[in-house]
Amino acid sequence: MLSNPYINALLTVLGAVIFIVTTSLGLGYTARWIAKIRGAKARVQEGAFAGYLFAAPWIIGFFIFVLIPLCFSLYWSFTDYRVISNEPANWIGLQNYSKLLLDDDGFRQSVVNTTYLTVLGLPLQIGVALLLAVLLNQKLKGERVFRMAFYLPVILGFNTAVLLCWRLMLNTGTGIINQIIRGLSNLFPPFGYLNRSGIFIQELSSAFFLGISNSNFTLLRKVWEVGFPSEVRVPLWVQSPLWSKMPVVLLMIWGCGTMMLIFLAGLNNIPKELNEAAEVDGATKWKQFWKISFPLLSPYIFYNLVVGMINALQIFEPIFILYRDNQPLVPSAISMVYYLWQASFSHFEIGYGSAISWIILIIILIITYIQFKMQDRWVTYDLY
Amino acid sequence: MRKTVWPLIKKVTLYILLTGATLLMSFPLFWMISSSLKTIEETNSPGIIWIPKEPTFAAYNNILQNGAFIRSYANSVFFVALAMAGTLISISAVAYAFSRVKWPGRNLIFFLMLSTMMIPPQALIVPQYVLFNKLNWVGTFNPIIIPGYFAGGAAMIFLLRQSMAQIPQELDESAFMDGANHIQIWWEIIMPLMKAPLATISTFLFVGLWNSLLAPLMYLQTVDLYTLPVFVSTLYNINQTVQPWPTIMAAAVLTTVPLMVIFFFAQRFILESVVMTGLK
């Protein structure tokens, strides 16, 4: 009917605005009417009208885009619904969930990969963020410029264009990162050893995690048998299943700016008197950091840990850009949300996809709940 | 003697560390620009070429003559502008309701709104896809624009509400005395005072929309509708024997320029607000 997509979008926007305004007015008048019936004062009636009128866009949107879809997806997760076929959804009970949890390699891989990122990637990310925050907290001149430079990757982070630049830098043969590693290894032999032991440790841990997700540890045995990497070895960033998670870890470290700002806020909150008193008592800077700053920072570390975990299971863009064309690598790097997208939309299996969505939702709720519960035990709030 | 030399050494070491970290963190950006000025042979050469000896703008020429790139740029500007306008107006109306008006059920609905922050948006993509499919919106811009008009984004509402709640209530009272209604107070009195928080929210909103890949990928099914991230992702293709890296990087530079400009102007607001929400 309407071939021009821009006019189509503008007309739909107009329609949406009219819809929102009328339903908001409707909601406002209904609220006033109910208040009137309940015998409220004129002022309260006015408040009810204005409050529901102004809050209506969110209330309506909550029903249309959140609550009703959630209910439907809960229902569909117990059916074999597909959006393409015209057949109605058939109730299949817990089959989707049992298949997902017991008999789905892709899902298990995504869980293992998220665990890998949480166990190995997150500590690195948090460590770098903390280091940068401590450096910035020395209150040097030009701190603002450095802070900007460290935060910029968060803004650019997951933009496709920037990810493609990483793809270029991570090329095994001609990529700049491996060129620099090669150059440094030739210049300083100790760096070569460092690089090779890094490769060895990374490949062992990665092979271990791949072993868990395939329940087959031959790869780990092979890596172990080959032994210490030879001198010419460089990381195989975007080429080998053993390495495919490392670019994601690099991207996490690169985008640690938000965590850094949170740590910076935490460091600012530490009363100066504590450090001054410790200094008078003769404590070294090192000791001051571990005995005063670090315990007082633990709420912030914990917060970053939880948010980082939730983010790790939602990684989508890097995997799409780096591995979409290299399908054999996808399973070794896949995140839960990427798996959700792949499983739901390759065959439009809405029922199965809904089950995955609900599992992700439940996992996130559990992590958040544990955060609230653990806070009291793990975290020092009361050193003041 | 020791007292004067030691702080100097410490300061110099700190500056060296900070500068080193800055160089590392901004290296991808430098590499993107440098590669966009190279030839294909130079990007695939086995030696390191930090800065091309004879910078060429051929890659920019290439990408700017690509009609699909220009179109995707226009698409991105179009959808981001429309989505931002709707989101900003609707969330400020909702924030007004939660901060300046007393109404029955306010606390309950506010709590409900805050609890939606825990729902990851990705948990909703499957049922929302079915919804937009039923509305016949797949293959149009609507699914990536319209939800914003319904005050999408609990975190943004919360941030704005906190700022609005700090304005003294007497301001509204006196306006009421003069016969103003809520719409006038919201638009003419409260909104002009909200410039700083709105600038922060706009920046985050812009960055999120400009970078968004998953939703555009799902809903914009034809090349004509592609937004920048979707189009740029098609430039890299493993089936090509030689990747046209300079062209891809030129497209990348042009894609990130708006982000950098916005960040440059808004960084003061952003950095402070991140710290503030961290402080809670």
Q: What can you see in these coordinates?
A:
- The complex is a heterodimer of chains A (384) and B (280).
- With 384 residues, chain A is mainly α.
- Chain A has 2 domains: 5-76; 101-172 and 236-378, MetI-like (MetI-like fold, Orthogonal Bundle), CATH 1.10.3720.
- Chain A contains 17 helices and no strands.
- Chain A is globular and about 85 Å long.
- Chain B has 14 helices and no strands.
- Chain B is globular, with a radius of gyration of 24 Å.
Write the layout of secondary structure elements.
The complex is a heterodimer of chains A (384) and B (280).
Chain A (H helix, E strand, L loop, with lengths): L4 H33 L4 H35 L18 H8 L2 H32 L6 H14 L3 H10 L6 H12 L1 H26 L3 H9 L19 H9 L2 H13 L2 H9 L4 H28 L4 H7 L6 H4 L2 H11 L3 H29 L6
Helix pairs in contact in A: 1-2, 2-17, 4-8, 4-10, 4-11, 4-13, 5-11, 6-14, 7-8, 8-9, 11-13, 13-17, 16-17
Chain B lengths: L1 H35 L3 H4 L14 H7 L2 H34 L5 H10 L9 H10 L7 H8 L4 H12 L4 H8 L4 H9 L4 H17 L2 H6 L8 H8 L9 H35 L1
Keywords:
heterodimer, A: mainly alpha, MetI-like fold, 2 domains, globular, B: mainly alpha, 14 helices
Summarize the largest interface: chains and residue counts: A-B, 105 and 107 residues
Major sheet of chain B? none
Q: What is the total number of structural domains of chain B?
A: 2
**Helices and strands of chain B: which structural class?**
mainly alpha
CATH class of the largest domain in chain A: Mainly Alpha
Distance, first to last CA of chain B: 45 Å
User: Quick one: how many beta strands of chain A?
Assistant: 0
